[in-house]
Design a protein that fits this description.
24% of the residues lie in helices and 23% in strands. With 87 residues, the protein is an alpha+beta fold.
Length: 87
C-alpha cells in the first residue's frame, strides 16, 4: 500500500516541495529528489521525506508516483504552501 510523504530540500515553505506516494520513506526521498532535480536541483542526500498520513487516502494504484501541484489532487484538496499541513 502506498503512503503519502512530503519531500523537500531545505525549508519546504521557501524551497518548494512535492507530494510523493511511495512504499517507504527512502523510496519517497529518491522519487522526491528526482522530481526536485527537474527544477534544477535535487540531491538525495539532502532530500527529506516527511509522512503525511492525511493524504494516504488519495493514493492511486500500487506504483509509486509524485504530485508536483495542487492541480493534480482531487477537487477541494490543497497541499502545497498550506502552512498548517506542511508543519
Amino acid at each position: 500500500m502506498l503512503k503519502a510523504y512530503m519531500a523537500h530540500e531545505g525549508s519546504p515553505a521557501f524551497d518548494g516541495c512535492v507530494l510523493v506516494f511511495a512504499h517507504t520513506r527512502n523510496q519517497a526521498r529518491y522519487i522526491g529528489s528526482c522530481a526536485i532535480a527537474s527544477w534544477g536541483c535535487g540531491e538525495y542526500e539532502i532530500t527529506h521525506a516527511i509522512r503525511k498520513p492525511a493524504f494516504d487516502k488519495y493514493a492511486k494504484g500500487d506504483t509509486p508516483y509524485v504530485i508536483e501541484s495542487n492541480n493534480e489532487l482531487p477537487d477541494g484538496v490543497a497541499f502545497f504552501r498550506e502552512i498548517d499541513i506542511i508543519y
